[in-house]
């Protein structure tokens, strides 16, 4: 009601809307996109994706130099990190002759998941990657989500000291066995762990033979005492021969083209359970 004032007399007749009680405001409806999804949810989804991308870039910047071993790309294919494992002591970008189709795959020392994702693209039924570094595992998990690999998961674990909770059809031990593994006496633990996780086959990358000059921190006497005289001779450590002895329940075969086994690059070796 209007106040009883002479100066406002007739106002209700002149502008009747002003003399009526105000109508309650209608609730504002959120705009929707096709399919009935609220537009704001679409925005939040994009923001979440951007947050994941930013977090991944932050992780890559925080990792020590040399940690990222293979190229890292986001969902659009943009290169985020080149990786340091493509030089003379690295493997080429593929594993020839390996069939992943329908297999459960375990990627030991998975790093950022390069070979885990390769197995998924190759038709693996399920892939589990293990790495000891929580930051690396977080980055790999973000990559799997961003690239849509729903059958790939990553787990923080020191697989050389923790017994497996399950076994897998195919075990990958790629970009793991190297000079430090040999000289520091970690080779047996790595080989034994891979065998413990395996039901059928294993794929390793390694240099079949190391000239002793390449094994800085090791010498013929200490290496022979650890691994045996039969694999340390003629100025070389015969790594593949030792692995074959250690893994007596498996038959090894080279997947990469033959050549001088002492050259400074790694070979892919398939170990099939007998």
From TrEMBL:
Cross-referenced Pfam families: Methyltransf_31
Occurrences of domain Methyltransferase (ranges): 101-175
InterPro entries, per database record: Methyltranfer_dom, SAM-dependent_MTases_sf
Disordered as annotated region, ranges: 1-33
Protein known as: Methyltransferase domain-containing protein
Organism encoding this protein: hydrocarbon metagenome
């Amino acid at each position: 009601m209007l106040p009883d004032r002479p100066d406002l007399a007739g106002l209700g007749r002149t502008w009747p809307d002003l003399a009526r009680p105000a109508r309650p405001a209608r609730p504002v409806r959120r705009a929707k996109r096709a399919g009935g999804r609220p537009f704001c949810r679409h925005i939040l989804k994009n923001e979440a994706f951007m947050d994941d991308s930013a977090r991944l870039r932050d992780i890559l910047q925080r990792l020590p130099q040399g940690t990222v071993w293979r190229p890292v790309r986001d969902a659009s294919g943009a290169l985020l990190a080149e990786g340091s494992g493509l030089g003379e002591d690295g493997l080429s970008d593929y594993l020839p002759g390996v069939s992943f189709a329908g297999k459960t795959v375990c990627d030991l020392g998975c790093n950022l998941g390069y070979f885990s994702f390769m197995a998924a693209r190759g038709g693996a039924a399920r892939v589990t990657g293990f790495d000891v570094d929580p930051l690396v595992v977080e980055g790999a998990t973000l990559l799997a989500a961003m690239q849509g690999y729903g059958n790939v998961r990553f787990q923080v674990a020191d697989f050389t000291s923790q017994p497996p909770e399950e076994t897998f059809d195919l075990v990958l031990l790629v970009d793991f066995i190297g000079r430090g593994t040999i000289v520091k006496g970690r080779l047996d633990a790595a080989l034994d762990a891979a065998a413990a996780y395996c039901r059928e086959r294993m794929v390793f990358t390694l240099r079949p033979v190391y000239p002793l000059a390449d094994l800085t921190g090791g010498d013929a006497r200490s290496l022979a005492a650890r691994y045996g005289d039969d694999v340390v001779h003629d100025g070389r450590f015969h790594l593949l021969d030792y692995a074959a002895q250690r893994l007596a329940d498996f038959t090894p075969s080279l997947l990469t083209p033959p050549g001088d086994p002492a050259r400074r690059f790694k070979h892919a070796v398939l170990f099939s359970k007998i």
